[in-house]
């Protein structure tokens, strides 16, 4: 089983969620996508580049997508591209963490940057100013790319199981139920915490993902055919 991990915009230097996911499946079985703004300066290029990387590394193995915040939007579009182009077998599941549905998304770069940097400062009390500035630059670059994203109404439903993890305390996430129109068979889990609940509730998130992995490992359809 492979995990394809799409982190938040800005990609924390020490991503504790990614570290724990690596412990679960092993370093060889996790594909981390990061630095979105450095991968491409336009949205379609980003998605095509990620799909190609997945084709080169997943082969015919079963896999799950895990996307946090902006990463969940990227994961959704990657999944939709795979479904439309039939360029790779579909994932068993997509796990969405702390993300507004793409069809309801509006990005205000200044407000989102201010909010995220304030929350990051709370999370990492000992972080120095230089590191905060690096994170802020990376965050803004990724958000500038997200700001170029345009939701396409056609063929919007992706036929894949999904697990939506969110918090009503999250000031950046709204209309969470609209994921139902985008992903097949949505399961919702509400947790306490703000936008970075994947870090403040790390143990709970890991347990939920472990349960998802075991659920699919025990299914016969976990074995997939050769990729197109």
Brief sketch in words of this structure:
With 228 residues, the protein is α/β, with parallel strands linked by helices.
Coarse morphology = globular
CATH topology: Rossmann fold
Rg, Å, rounded: 17 Å
Biggest β-sheet, characterized? 6 strands, parallel
One letter per element, helices H and strands E, the order comes to EHEHHEHEHHEEHH
Descriptors:
single chain, 228 residues, alpha/beta, Rossmann fold, six-stranded parallel β-sheet, 8 helices, 6 strands, disordered C terminus
Could you explain how this protein is built, in words?
The protein contains eight helices and six strands; from the N terminus they run βαβααβαβααββαα. The chain is an alpha/beta fold. The protein has a single domain, classed as 3-Layer(aba) Sandwich (Rossmann fold), CATH 3.40.50.1820. It has a six-stranded parallel β-sheet with strand order 2-1-3-4-5-6, sandwiched between helices. The protein is globular. The chain starts with a strand and ends in an 11-residue tail after the last helix. The C terminus is likely disordered.
